[in-house]
Amino acid sequence: MNIPTPRISTGELPASRKIHVAGTLYPEIRVPMREISVHPTAGEPPLSVYDSSGPYTDPGVTTDIRKGLAPLRLSWIRARADVEEYAGRKVEAADNGFAEGDRLVPEFPIRARPLRACGDTAVTQLAYARAGIITPEMEFVAIRENQLRDAVAEERGGQDFGASIPDYVTPEFVRSEVAAGRAIIPANINHPELEPMIIGRNFLVKINANMGTSAVTSSMEEEVEKMVWAIRWGADTVMDLSTGRNIHNTREWIIRNSPVPIGTVPIYQALEKVGGIAEDLTWEVFRDTLIEQAEQGVDYFTIHAGVRLHMVPMTVNRVTGIVSRGGSIMAKWCLHHHKESFLYEHFEEICQICRKYDVSFSLGDGLRPGSIADANDEAQFAELETLGELTEIAWAHDCQVMIEGPGHVAMHKIKENMEKQLECCHEAPFYTLGPLTTDIAPGYDHITSGIGAAMIGWFGCAMLCYVTPKEHLGLPDRDDVKTGVITYKIAAHAADLAKGLPGAQRRDDALSRARFEFRWEDQFNLSLDPDTARQFHDETMPKEAHKVAHFCSMCGPKFCSMRISHDIRAEAREQGMADMAAKFREGGALYVPAGQSEE
Amino acid sequence: MNIPTPRISTGELPASRKIHVAGTLYPEIRVPMREISVHPTAGEPPLSVYDSSGPYTDPGVTTDIRKGLAPLRLSWIRARADVEEYAGRKVEAADNGFAEGDRLVPEFPIRARPLRACGDTAVTQLAYARAGIITPEMEFVAIRENQLRDAVAEERGGQDFGASIPDYVTPEFVRSEVAAGRAIIPANINHPELEPMIIGRNFLVKINANMGTSAVTSSMEEEVEKMVWAIRWGADTVMDLSTGRNIHNTREWIIRNSPVPIGTVPIYQALEKVGGIAEDLTWEVFRDTLIEQAEQGVDYFTIHAGVRLHMVPMTVNRVTGIVSRGGSIMAKWCLHHHKESFLYEHFEEICQICRKYDVSFSLGDGLRPGSIADANDEAQFAELETLGELTEIAWAHDCQVMIEGPGHVAMHKIKENMEKQLECCHEAPFYTLGPLTTDIAPGYDHITSGIGAAMIGWFGCAMLCYVTPKEHLGLPDRDDVKTGVITYKIAAHAADLAKGLPGAQRRDDALSRARFEFRWEDQFNLSLDPDTARQFHDETMPKEAHKVAHFCSMCGPKFCSMRISHDIRAEAREQGMADMAAKFREGGALYVPAGQSEE
């Protein structure tokens, strides 16, 4: 098999160094972080930040997509002695849409036998958490969430709307949140390459980036690079929404090379298997697809089991009907057969599959609003209540669950979404798309939705699914993906600040100090997108000398408020302004002559 | 004088037609609006939207920047018979920074004698409103705000946080809001080219775009085009923040060609007049600059009179000190002279000038926070209280007032800003810069601030000052200005929707209907930026045929949820789904056999 050398984005970000932190309960675990160094004049230690980019930004590791990433979790999984290797389902031509010859994407070179739970055991993080077991995955995410900040309790600002954010994240806290169903650690036992992460209201807000081949075939390098590019800029999970041919083989290449959880919408592949005719879908085809994907290592499934026959009519008078693909497919099936959804009726069997591999549920919101006019309507909330029922069923089977949310929602209706979700779904983590706060700006929907995402993240949403500038218009290219990811990192971080997450403000403060001290390089390096910040600066002030200039192009030296502030600070120090100020305040509005004020 | 032919952006936006609506009280007024037509298959009338772009988008008007725009307000002003023409202040070399020869921007070709109030009369919209007079300006904005929607009371959604939004905007409502000081109509009697607009919490949220020559000289065409470009995309006012040479002449070119209110920060020009040495500023130089600009027709002045000597020490321990240019200049002056601010001490004389020309106050927040760490601190709120005092003084002189606000503020601290401002400043309109909700994304601060802007607009902020992607890094180019304006139109509109402003959702609904009916052209034309929407769509589906395709490149025909929704809708109609649904609901979770459900 001759594959051209992959063009994958590797290498560290500016002034950054990959570090690894060992565990205490599990000394062998190595939690990756990114350490950003600042100029010596700052007299500050480097800042360590959360790092979703995987080994691709580790100069100590040579990655080869034909080999895949190291299976770091394998020993952890084996050590639990509750799984068995087995032959696994045979890959069929239908799995790749009957692609043949040079239209068929080559299989991933290495073929491992899949793992599954022994007998009826549940091998989910939820089952372990309930049994009081702190897994390596749990200690890993605990260390990861703290970003090396001190364990001391900080003074907490923010408004958390009833969340239970800890001063410091301990492995036991992670276990208790997972046990309570308030957080999930998507981690299929067949995805050992995964660097565990957690999704929950009491942890850092996460973001997801979507990708996928469309009808047209693209190379494995391209597909893997899409994922690598998204995590390089901060995507915490990636959903593979591929349709068309080669879905099976492409997904294998992606999972084997992904350090982040991979989510899918299995109904898409099932529909391909029945030639794209929704009415021809059957439980058997769907079930077979779930096992196929579980064996490959998919970490979470979007399942639209909340769309039920009696809800379909509620969408008929909407402005934009049903806008979820999975939702519309199921609605059509229900309507055509005049039957209840097979996803709903076979939900317990789906749970039986998920608990065998620890595939987390992402219960899909098939009836989410596709326009401002349809937000928070009868159909949407009827489905949400059903998702609540399903959550309890999944929990009864020790399955991890998160709930998907809208969509298009004006600002004043966002909070109701969060409150109803917490109530209906018993605090299972919420995972929303945006929401978009207006319909009138196609081409800028990363912004219309970034506004809603920041707000719902503040209110308690655990993960935000990004939206790119191409939403509603076309397929995102490389730049669109980066813009979408950065926009959502902004929304997630703004939410962390507003929730008062301990340590969240450290990066803002470090960057603002750099700004105030004219440490331009530090200002670039501490930002979410150093390349763009530097490029924008250099467009007006290219010279290297300007990187130390005590002013910038916007005002020039004469008008630089920060420069003046430094003069004021200097004078203030001399004159003991504080006392003087006190005197001025006593004097109230009146001017106090210098003579007196110096008494 | 030989000026090259100006390159000014003119012409209508796609599918748009400029229309004019006549007044009732004043039949001679012609209120501009933009009528967007949709495809005949829609069976909908054209949508009329607010239009800030002026005659530049009116094919019936030939503009020539050397002649300036038609002085449409002149007859209205004259008719009030309370102003007199006079020689006016002589332009001095210092007004243009002593620029000479070919470094001197040519004077605007036409030199009109300025107007001022006769004797001690106040010629402000506030004075007229208090006297019970509905001016043409007031009827103009009333018609403009309604955007031709019907006068019927609509069902009101939204949460308005105690605002008093009317079902329909009448001229009398405008008068009463202006009289109460809750809204302003910035309209200098020496800016007759102005198409009046209103800034107030009970009206559409407005946006401002900043522009300005920097030290380097640029041509008049460039300067005028900056303004024309900003209003073409929706800027409601423009602030000229020019520094360096040629400030006077450049401003004259801008005002004579501007249909929107022009704001300035007079201290910038005053500082130029004293060679850029803050300590050398005097009341006399400042006073002279106010008169110079008032005679030219500046509609609102940013005055940093709230920065007082005793507040300076409160900024000494901030992370980013003082970040307002005007604020830092005044702080330095106060500190150096150990004196109270001359702006504060001479505030009543400033009012005397403003009431003579109807220059509105924009009371500057010189101590606004420049970082998340400094938000809502002692210095910021101390100044806000002083701005409240000054508001009452200005009102006592019949001067119109709005209040400037921050800055950098995390989401959970935004509401407090709005509440304190309403309380301290007696409901005078609030005008904020962003606020930016995090410091960590230079290069994307239009987004970090767009989030805060949408929220504070919802809470009651009347005007949002845009931030471009170049904020903190460099000078915005043409594309940055457009991105900043569109981002802020999104924030303002999202706020209008959330406040429940009657009619605000009409555009969202029209665009969403177009989206659901695959009317691609309508979807582009109804959007805030038709060019970008079309371009993004065409990148993946260039063919004209695709403009009528009943699917898009994202999912393709097989997966198009909206297409499926249409099938569902069709089937539903046949089967009388509504009744069936009722039966299903009676049946609860259980599936009701088709037989029964058809009884």
UniProtKB/TrEMBL annotation, chains A, B:
Record's catalysed reaction(s): 5-amino-1-(5-phospho-beta-D-ribosyl)imidazole + S-adenosyl-L-methionine = 4-amino-2-methyl-5-(phosphooxymethyl)pyrimidine + CO + 5'-deoxyadenosine + formate + L-methionine + 3 H(+)
Domain of life: Bacteria
InterPro entries: ThiC, ThiC-associated_dom, ThiC/Bza_core_dom, ThiC/BzaA/B
ThiC-associated domain residues: 13-84
Any one cellular-component term (Gene Ontology): cytosol
Cofactor: [4Fe-4S] cluster
Binding site for Zn(2+): H408, H472
Cofactor note: Binds 1 [4Fe-4S] cluster per subunit. The cluster is coordinated with 3 cysteines and an exchangeable S-adenosyl-L-methionine.
Pathway: Cofactor biosynthesis; thiamine diphosphate biosynthesis
MF term (GO), any: 4 iron, 4 sulfur cluster binding
EC numbers on record: 4.1.99.17
Keyword Zinc: yes
Pfam families noted in UniProt: ThiC-associated (PF13667), ThiC_Rad_SAM (PF01964)
Similarity section: Belongs to the ThiC family.
Subunit structure and binding partners: Homodimer.
Main function: Catalyzes the synthesis of the hydroxymethylpyrimidine phosphate (HMP-P) moiety of thiamine from aminoimidazole ribotide (AIR) in a radical S-adenosyl-L-methionine (SAM)-dependent reaction.
UniProt cross-references to PANTHER family, sorted A to Z: PHOSPHOMETHYLPYRIMIDINE SYNTHASE, CHLOROPLASTIC, THIAMINE BIOSYNTHESIS PROTEIN THIC
Protein name: Phosphomethylpyrimidine synthase
Protein species of origin: Paracoccus aurantiacus
Lineage: Bacteria, Pseudomonadati, Pseudomonadota, Alphaproteobacteria, Rhodobacterales
